[in-house]
Task: structure prediction
Amino acid sequence: MIISGGARLKGVVTISGAKNAILPILAASLLSESPLVLEGVPCLDDVKIMKDVLQELGVKVNFVGDMMEIDPSSINSTEVSPSLMRMMRASNLVMGALLGRFGRVRVSQPGGCTIGSRPMDLHLKSFIALGAEVAQNHGFIEAECARLEGTDLHLDFPSVGATENIMMAAAMAEGTTIIRNTAREPEIIELQNFLNKLGARIKGAGLDVIRIDGVPKLGREIAYRVIPDRIETGTFMVAAAVTRGDVLIRNTIPEHVEPVTAKLREAGIDVQEKDDWIHVRGVDRWNSLDVRTMPFPGFPTDMQAQMMVFLSLARGTSIITENIFENRFQHVGELRRMGAQIRVEGRSAVVEGVQSLTGAVVESTDLRAGAALVLGGLASDNTTVVEGLQHIDRGYEKLESKLRLLGAKVRREA
Ligand code: EPZ
Result:
């Protein structure tokens, strides 16, 4: 992606459907005996991979525009191929649904990725507590159980994926399952709403205890609209701030990005919000501040890299502490190539604000690092080349055309 930086972003941008809401919902559709329709589905590479996973399992999927018709009544497998598993770790979200509905699942151990080892111990420990036999060998994970039994679970860490996998496994288990210390992300609430529309009986999502009363089967011919993407929203909020622009962000849910709004306001950025829009007006210089990533409703780890670009241009020194992933500072080296003054000390990055960044050729290492480098390019006073767009295409729909509509000078070259 080639970016001629310096333009103040101005205008209106519309947010697409949430990647981290649609992925668990696609997995959860495996529980349904009836066809269903999803609306507001973003056209992302990760969504296409999950579609391939469902089709490999025998599900009929028709993806046209932002609508996806899914017919899970012809599922004929409970195994996901290693090649698909390796392409996207979130494929592991099919485990809970396949185990819960068919009593067995076989997947390859999901690869880690650059931001961390990403173990599945909390998922597997919970499946065992629900009565499943779990075996891990030769790089495969197998789980079997004729009928899962509801139980009382406590998560060592409020893992998003583990919470989601347990909700799906327990939806058709015998009796009641209680999950304590659950993730509280908005996407967990969406999964509860989706499953309940299919006939599940789940309560408490969004708080830290979720109760699931198992039902014998799931399936209603429903249509479900995916919520807007809070991380795409936050990314455009920071884009407006670092370019000293004036951007109206539409089709979003302000309370889902409250931690980002709070930090931008603390730095001196003018953020107005109402109903389904957020208006961000940049200022010439802003203040440094400290950020600690935490599970929702704390500051989201998926906005850490973007915030680092913002703080690289602040007045003074900021400290960013990454508490969720053990290796999520890959973007630091690339930002330094653009003139940022950052040094990493363990889980923290110390960011000395500079007057401006300068364009460079930089490499995306993961989805949000890539997005941060684009923001760096937009804020720089000359040309930046961002390579490794396959990472960005996993989680941002039509990024450069949305940015061009806001006045950015950006183009993609094969
Ligand atoms: C989800 O990943 C998101 N992905 C991630 O977004 C996001 O960064 C993460 O939640 C945290 O908010 C999707 O929703 C598809 P976790 P997930 O389980 O579920 C450790 C993006 O950019 N852990 O909450 O994998 C784990 O290693 C992506 O959109 C265990 O130790 O996150 C990590 O350090 C990146 N054992 C921490 O918990 C387990 O069994 C948080 O992981 C599970 C997790």
The pocket of EPZ is lined by residues 19-20, 23, 90, 116, 118-123, 157, 159-162, 183, 301-302, 324-325, 367-368, 395 (CB under 6 Å). The mean pLDDT is 97. The chain has two domains: 2-16+228-411, 19-225. The radius of gyration is 21 Å.
